[in-house]
Amino acid sequence: MRSLSIAATGMLAQQMNVEVISNNIANMNTSGYKRQRAEFNDLLYQDMRRVGANSSEEGTIVPSGIQLGLGVKPAAIYRINEQGSIQMTDNPLDMAMNGKGMFMVEMPNGETGYTRAGSFQLSPDGDLVTPDGYPVQPGITIPVDAVGVTVNANGEVWVDLDGQVDPQLVGQIEVARFPNEAGLQALGDNLFAETRASGQATVGVPGQAGFGSVLQGAVESSNVDMVKEITNMVAAQRAYEMNSKVISTSDEMMRNVSQMR
Amino acid sequence: MESTNYIALSRQASLRRELDLVANNMANLNTPAYQGESMMFVEYLEDTQRGKTGEMSFVQDISTVRDLKEGPMKRTENPLDLAISGRGYFTIETDDGPRYTRNGAFQLNEEGQIVNKANQPVLDGNGNPIEVPDDAQSIEISEDGTIATEVGQIAQLEPVTFENEQLLMKRANGLFEAREEQVAEPAEGARIMQGTLESSNVEGVVEMTRLINLTRSYSSANKFSESEHERILRAVRTLVSSQ
């Protein structure tokens, strides 16, 4: 029975929908997390009675024919790269991107990872690193005797040294931008990798044309909207139930047949 | 004279196909811009030995009818999610020629083109794929379909429509194929809404009631066959015992 497998595709789709929603909810407090959405498309159509077929010898044609759809399939799960809200933390090494651009991080395998989660820390050597200890690129070292760190909107890192009046420039934070951010591959730990779909990274200085600016002492919260997620979940659950109803209906019809004498 | 059974069977066969249709509507409850379908049944008359007065009436499903009602609009805040308010379709370029869709869940591909989820480019009013410059930070699409970035206008989307939309053939991924004689005309009164997706216009409650109706009709057709079977059985027994 075709309806059984059609309803099964519907249930699988809704299950995936709930999985995506639950991951969003689980990450609602992850800094720099971008919510995801599952998108569905209808499957192939079977032409039972072709549109435009002759319905009589006089040449009249069937106006719209019978096309039976064969269910639904997941089309994409994609990230919505809307800016998350900015949360002030007053930690001088927390940096939020306001606008386009991702911080670059050197991963243990030597490749560059990209992230929007700018809650950085200092390594024992004074290097600017992520909470996992991955150095931020290009390497920025804060001198041990620094008493204050200032990062301006353009990503320049200035330090106040004990006994010196003028702040000293110790580094420049560079950020990367992609033609299609939705095409980045998520690696977990708030990190993303470049793919063919994302396009080549354009590296630049924050505040430049096309790049957002850096906000010190703040982190970007996730852009998950709780209310939206819950309503989506309710909708997904109902859709799941309705599809299961189709299955029980098909079952009932088959039982009817098998009980015939 | 087994035609009673055949009549019941014609009903059951059509109901089964209708169930497939309802199942597909339900499966696509969350597919953007999906339009629900229903089946159109007609009577199929056949002459008997008694001529025109004793015609037998079978049931036949002749076509599926698409519900062209606009689905509810859902805000997504994604700049490349577009919905059409009013009649109209986006034009999509595929390897097999132009296809039409109301599903405006678009994205950028690696070449910077605006594409649908199956990586097929969306065409502008002049029939060209739309390329968004690399350095664009934001994409603004106005109600009349003008696509602009901060450097200026780059293209214009022009929704199209057809004289009889029911004649469009459904293809996968929410696409429609126009038949040869169908001419795409500019859709008047169609407005493009950015950051919005048209939801599926399937109403769960309606489909549920159809489903219940279907099951009941199916089992009553079943009963019909059964009682017919008993009738013949009784007739045979009576005839046998009267000999």
Automatic annotation (TrEMBL), chain A:
PROSITE patterns: FLAGELLA_BB_ROD (PS00588). It is found in: Bacterial flagellum basal body. GO terms for biological process: bacterial-type flagellum-dependent swarming motility. Residues 5-34 form the Flagellar basal body rod protein N-terminal domain. GO terms for cellular component: bacterial-type flagellum basal body, distal rod. InterPro entries: Flag_bb_rod_N, Flagellar_basal_body_rod_CS, Flagellar_FlgE/F/G, Flg_bb/hook_C_dom, FlgE/F/G-like, FlgG_G_neg, LlgE_F_G-like_D1. Residues 96-158 form the Flagellar hook protein FlgE/F/G-like D1 domain. Residues 216-260 form the Flagellar basal-body/hook protein C-terminal domain. SUPFAM superfamilies: Flagellar hook protein flgE. Pfam families: Flg_bb_rod, Flg_bbr_C, LlgE_F_G_D1. The keyword Transmembrane does not apply. Keywords: Bacterial flagellum, Cell projection, Cilium, Flagellum. The basal body constitutes a major portion of the flagellar organelle and consists of four rings (L,P,S, and M) mounted on a central rod. The rod consists of about 26 subunits of FlgG in the distal portion, and FlgB, FlgC and FlgF are thought to build up the proximal portion of the rod with about 6 subunits each. Belongs to the flagella basal body rod proteins family. This is Flagellar basal-body rod protein FlgG. It comes from Rhodovibrio salinarum.
TrEMBL record, chain B:
It is found in: Bacterial flagellum basal body. This is Flagellar basal-body rod protein FlgF. One of its GO terms (cellular component) is bacterial-type flagellum basal body, rod. Belongs to the flagella basal body rod proteins family. The lineage of its organism: Bacteria, Pseudomonadati, Pseudomonadota, Alphaproteobacteria, Rhodospirillales. NCBIfam families: FlgEFG_subfam, flgF. The keyword NAD does not apply. Pfam families: Flg_bb_rod, Flg_bbr_C, LlgE_F_G_D1. The keyword rRNA-binding does not apply. Keywords: Bacterial flagellum, Cell projection, Cilium, Flagellum. One of its GO terms (biological process) is bacterial-type flagellum-dependent swarming motility. PANTHER family: FLAGELLAR BASAL-BODY ROD PROTEIN FLGG, FLAGELLAR PROTEIN. It comes from the Bacteria. Residues 83-148 form the Flagellar hook protein FlgE/F/G-like D1 domain. The basal body constitutes a major portion of the flagellar organelle and consists of five rings (E,L,P,S, and M) mounted on a central rod. The rod consists of about 26 subunits of FlgG in the distal portion, and FlgB, FlgC and FlgF are thought to build up the proximal portion of the rod with about 6 subunits each. Residues 6-35 form the Flagellar basal body rod protein N-terminal domain. Residues 193-230 form the Flagellar basal-body/hook protein C-terminal domain.
